[in-house]
Design a protein that fits this description.
The chain has two helices and no strands. With 62 residues, it is an all-alpha fold. It is elongated, with a radius of gyration of 13 Å. 15% of the residues are buried.
């Protein structure tokens, strides 16, 4: 599996994921917090499953 997220993309996703999780926890809306885990997990692994569908790639040089 090729990492298809670049450094900037991963940083933005990590910040957004943490912010969404924090908002969900503060408002006690755990569904929102769960949704915030998605961008955080994709940032950690460096792979977005939707990028190949749309033929996007910000990380792997071929």
């Amino acid at each position: 599996m090729c990492i298809n997220l670049g450094k900037a993309d991963r940083a933005i996703r990590a910040i957004a994921g943490v912010a969404i999780i924090a908002y969900g926890l503060v408002t006690q809306n755990y569904i929102v917090a769960g949704v915030g885990a998605i961008p955080l997990v994709t940032a950690v692994f460096g792979f977005c499953p939707f990028y190949p569908i749309f033929k996007l790639n910000t990380g792997c040089k071929k």
